[in-house]
Amino acid sequence: MAFVDEREKVTRNWPSSRDGDPVIWSDRLNSWLVLSHNAALEIVSSQSFSTAAYAVARPSPLPIPSGFELAPEVRRRVHSAAMACVGPRTFPQRTIYRRCVEVAEALPLGVEIEFSSQVAEPAAKALTGTWFGLSPEETDWLATAFKMARNAEEPLKRAAAAQLATERLREAISKARIGQSDTLLSRMVRSWQDNGADDNSLLAFVAPTFDSLARGFGGRLLTHTAYHLSREVEVQDRIRSDGWEAARKAVLESARLNPVNPTILRECLEDRKLAGIDIARGDRLIILLAAVCRDPAAYSDPDKFLLDRKTRHLAFGHGTYACSGREIALAVATTMLTELIHRSGFSISPTPNGNPVFGGDFGRSCLELPVVLERAANRQDNLEKTN
Question: What distances in angstroms separate CA 122 from CA 216, 222, 358, one per listed residue?
Answer without folding.
Answer: 10, 11, 20
